[in-house]
């Protein structure tokens, strides 16, 4: 390059362009050209300057060991003048400069540049003017930064408090989501329950991003001005937080409290990255301004209006599903506290950890931290923290419960033994059921001469109706239908090895309950129209039909699909089991923290004290049970669990109906069908009470009246609910589905009162009836029959108690004053009176 071209290039492309042509010409005369290969140190930190370097082509970068001044690390592009200040001020080089690519440099050696400085004072003067301009710019920038700092200081987040503690899959996933969110500039919605330190997660995202040196501020949406001036600023006036923030991060905390007026502009900001400053009324709206700030949203739940505008959505899992992390969290909070107070670290016993893991922590991490700190203070310097120190860790679900397995170890041993229920089922029930069916077919056909018919109607029905409030669905654990279903399943797999079909859960949940309802309706009509209770072979046909259903579906689907979704007797048992005073559950904390195999659910080999099993036959996990409907008390989970997590609790009867219960339409339909069945069983008495003169020997009249009797009680209760809505015109009552379960004690009590007549009046004749079945005379054998007055008293007492329990249960479910529920209470009393009239009298 010739000298005139060199002078032009220096004037146009470098900071030396402020010098006169004479000086530039003098510099051009002493320039030497050099080509430096890539990855070569041009100058070294802490050394005297050797020359003035002008980068013509290529790229350089600087590195410094001075970590307190990151501005020293920078890159250089063509036109950069290097070592000028060091040569003029005779200073050491502050950093090392390395070639990134092959570089073409103009070099003025130091021994030639210094005479030029002495010869031309203009060089030093020009440099001084440049320094003055730079100083003015720095002063202006410093004033701006001070003003910016004052504006942002009340909202500034200085650092993340802590990382994500724990090794559970939830903790690992949360860390991965934080890393992904920190890698780009998209907006993030962080939502979850209170106490989960969501604002700390927002800080982790910011300080893990490339813009970590930019400020991060947190603004509580509840205190924002409805005009948005503090966030967006005013046109021609005071800047807003977004303008001061620049490329920093804005955390909108508690977005659910954002004023409605600000929802559209915030949505615009998230969608387009622009905002419009606030104007006074009558002023023209200014042009939207672009914002380079990153938006992080913290909330307790997602907001549908802005959810579609969000780049990343992070759901922070509650502590109750991260029980495996509780030990690490406790150790971490303990270390923080003892380090701050300078006290010795106490040992935390395994029992204390188990106690903490059994608690659900509604306040999540914040509650756990407070609990740990309070425990250390209460321990008063003790070397060990025991479970008694953590006494507040008592979950609401565990209140008013007594674990019978702990109170009675012999009960645990029996329920874990081969006797329950396998030896009972396959050693007795399977054989006895075959004999029972055979006797029903070949024996006498009336109840007064067939002991099996007597057992079925006078013993089985009242006994298990009486047992429901105590042991729930325990009949299902020894049910012969299920036993023959399992026998069929094993035999078919032996003869035809194959993979049984998995359960069509979605369809079964939707239609299985209505199948049970329809089948029970047909059973009721069959029983009434063909007198099943006094016709042995028809009763046998009923038993065989239900058994056939269990066998067919057991040959098709794995485990006990029939028992869970389709069996009509199982549906009734599951409904009445909700009233039971016992329950089978598991400690959620132990299951979440200690269990990795889920043997109680899936089955598996022996592990520790856990036995080898095939898993829950109804595919129910004991830690996830919310009511007794889907537990048959087979105790498979108790046998399989190696961690002693399974509990068999004594509890307030029916407590699930006003705590964790989920109403289902088909269950309510079955409930009212069973209510109508009480009146259907007493059809002659009902006719007499109502003064009807219908001929029940005519099939169609009998069928029509039977259907009407099954339907009318449900219509009556629905009418009472209609009055309830009118009665509470200024208050919305609970839904009909929820309140309908309040009638459950009355339905159970009415059915029990009906069968008490058979149980107390005919059950005691079992010995002479047995002899009559065998063709022998048993007239001299003893009988035990209650007096009719005693039967009437017990029936009446059962109905009265059922009405009272119905009123009490309705109050617990509704959680409203008695006056508000008076129509339903009066309906329950009216039903009780009608049952008294047709059953007791």
UniProtKB/TrEMBL annotation:
Keyword Iron in annotation: yes
Signal sequence range: none
Chief place where the protein resides: membrane
Transmembrane segments: 424-443, 463-484, 511-530, 536-557, 665-683, 703-724, 736-756, 784-809, 821-839
Keyword terms of this UniProt record: ATP-binding, Cell membrane, Iron, Iron-sulfur, Membrane, Metal-binding, Nucleotide-binding, Transmembrane, Transmembrane helix
InterPro entries: 4Fe4S_Fe-S-bd, 4Fe4S_Fe_S_CS, AAA_lid_NorR, cNMP-bd_dom, cNMP-bd_dom_sf, NosR_regulator, P-loop_NTPase, RmlC-like_jellyroll
Subcellular location field: Cell membrane
Highest taxon of source: Bacteria
Pfam families named in the record: AAA_lid_14 (PF25601), cNMP_binding (PF00027), Fer4_5 (PF12801), Sigma54_activat (PF00158)
Entries under SUPFAM superfamilies matching the protein: 4Fe-4S ferredoxins (SSF54862), cAMP-binding domain-like (SSF51206), P-loop containing nucleoside triphosphate hydrolases (SSF52540)
Domain Sigma-54 factor interaction positions: 164-377
Boundaries of every Cyclic nucleotide-binding domain copy: 15-134
Domain 4Fe-4S ferredoxin-type: start-end pairs: 621-651
Listed name of the protein: Cyclic nucleotide-binding domain-containing protein
Source organism of the structure: Nostoc favosum CHAB5714
Lineage: Bacteria, Bacillati, Cyanobacteriota, Cyanophyceae, Nostocales
């Amino acid at each position: 390059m010739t000298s005139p071209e060199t002078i032009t290039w220096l004037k146009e492309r470098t900071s030396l362009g402020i010098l006169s042509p004479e000086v530039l010409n003098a510099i051009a005369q002493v320039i030497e050209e050099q080509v430096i290969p890539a990855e070569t140190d041009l100058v070294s930190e802490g050394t005297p300057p050797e020359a003035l370097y002008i980068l013509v082509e290529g790229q350089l970068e600087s590195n410094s060991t001075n970590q307190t001044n990151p501005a020293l690390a920078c890159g250089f592009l063509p036109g950069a003048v290097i070592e000028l200040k060091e040569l003029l001020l005779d200073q050491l080089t502050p950093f090392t400069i390395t070639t990134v690519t092959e570089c073409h440099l103009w070099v003025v050696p130091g021994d030639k540049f210094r005479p030029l400085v002495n010869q031309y004072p203009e060089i030093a003067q020009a440099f001084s003017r440049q320094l003055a301009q730079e100083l003015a710019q720095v002063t202006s920038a410093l004033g701006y930064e001070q003003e910016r700092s004052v504006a942002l200081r009340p909202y500034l987040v200085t650092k993340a408090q802590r990382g994500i503690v724990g090794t559970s899959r939830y903790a690992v996933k949360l860390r991965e989501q934080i890393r992904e969110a920190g890698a780009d500039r998209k907006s993030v919605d962080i939502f979850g329950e209170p106490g989960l330190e969501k604002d700390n997660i927002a800080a982790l995202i910011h300080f893990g991003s490339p813009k970590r040196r930019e400020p991060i501020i947190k603004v509580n949406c509840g205190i924002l001005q409805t005009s948005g001036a503090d966030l967006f600023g005013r046109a021609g006036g005071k800047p807003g937080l977004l303008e001061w923030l620049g490329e920093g991060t804005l955390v909108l905390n508690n977005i659910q409290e954002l004023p409605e007026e600000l929802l559209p502009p915030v949505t615009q900001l998230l969608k387009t990255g622009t905002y419009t400053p606030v104007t006074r009324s009558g002023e023209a709206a200014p042009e939207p301004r672009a914002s380079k700030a990153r938006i992080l949203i913290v909330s307790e739940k997602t907001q549908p209006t802005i959810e579609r505008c969000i780049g990343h959505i992070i759901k922070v899992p509650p502590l109750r599903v991260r029980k495996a992390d509780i030990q690490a969290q406790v150790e971490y909070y303990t270390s923080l506290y003892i380090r701050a107070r300078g006290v010795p670290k106490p040992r935390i016993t395994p029992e204390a950890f188990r106690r903490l893991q059994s608690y659900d922590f509604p306040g999540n991490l914040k509650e756990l931290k407070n609990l740990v700190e309070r425990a250390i203070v209460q321990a008063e310097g003790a070397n060990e923290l025991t479970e008694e120190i953590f006494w507040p860790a008592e979950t609401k679900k565990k209140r008013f419960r007594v674990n019978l397995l702990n109170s009675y170890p012999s009960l645990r041993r029996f329920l874990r033994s081969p006797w329950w229920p396998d030896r009972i089922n396959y050693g007795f029930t399977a054989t006895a059921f075959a004999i029972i069916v055979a006797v029903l077919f070949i024996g006498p056909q009336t109840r007064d001469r067939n002991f099996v018919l007597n057992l079925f109607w006078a013993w089985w029905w009242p006994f298990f109706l009486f047992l429901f409030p105590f042991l729930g669905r325990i009949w299902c654990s020894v049910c012969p239908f299920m036993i023959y279903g399992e026998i069929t399943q094993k035999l078919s797999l032996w003869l035809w090895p194959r993979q049984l079909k998995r359960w069509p859960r979605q369809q079964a949940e939707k239609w299985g309950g209505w199948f049970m309802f329809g089948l029970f309706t047909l059973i009721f009509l069959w029983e009434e129209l063909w007198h099943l209770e006094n016709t042995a072979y028809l009763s046998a046909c009923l038993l065989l039909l239900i058994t056939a259903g269990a066998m067919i579906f057991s040959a098709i689907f794995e485990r006990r699909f029939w028992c869970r979704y389709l069996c009509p007797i199982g549906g009734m048992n599951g409904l009445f089991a909700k009233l039971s005073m016992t329950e089978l559950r598991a400690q959620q904390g132990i299951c979440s923290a200690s269990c990795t195999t889920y043997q109680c659910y899936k089955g598996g080999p022996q592990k520790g004290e856990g036995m080898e099993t095939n898993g829950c036959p109804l595919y129910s996990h004991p830690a996830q049970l919310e009511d007794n409907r889907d537990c048959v008390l087979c105790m498979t989970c108790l046998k399989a669990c190696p961690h002693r997590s399974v509990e068999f609790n004594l509890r307030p009867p029916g407590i699930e109906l006003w705590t964790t219960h989920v109403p289902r339409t088909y269950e309510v339909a079955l409930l009212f069908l069973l209510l109508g069945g009480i009146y259907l069983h007493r059809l002659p008495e009902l006719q007499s009470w109502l003064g009807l003169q219908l001929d029940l020997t005519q099939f169609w009249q009998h069928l029509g009246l039977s259907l009407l009797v099954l339907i009318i009680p449900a219509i009556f209760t629905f009418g009472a609910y209609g009055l309830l809505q009118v009665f509470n015109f200024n208050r919305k009552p609970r839904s009909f589905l929820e309140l309908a379960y309040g009638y459950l004690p009355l339905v159970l009590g009415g059915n029990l009162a009906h069968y008490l007549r058979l149980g107390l009046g005919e059950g005691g004749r079992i010995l002479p009836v047995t002899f009559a079945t065998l063709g022998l005379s048993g007239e001299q054998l003893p009988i035990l029959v209650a007096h009719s007055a005693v039967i009437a008293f017990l029936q009446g007492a059962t109905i009265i108690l059922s009405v009272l329990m119905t009123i009490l249960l309705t109050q617990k479910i509704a959680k409203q004053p008695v006056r508000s529920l008076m129509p339903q209470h009066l309906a329950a009393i009216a039903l009780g009176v009608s049952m008294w009239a047709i059953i007791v009298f």
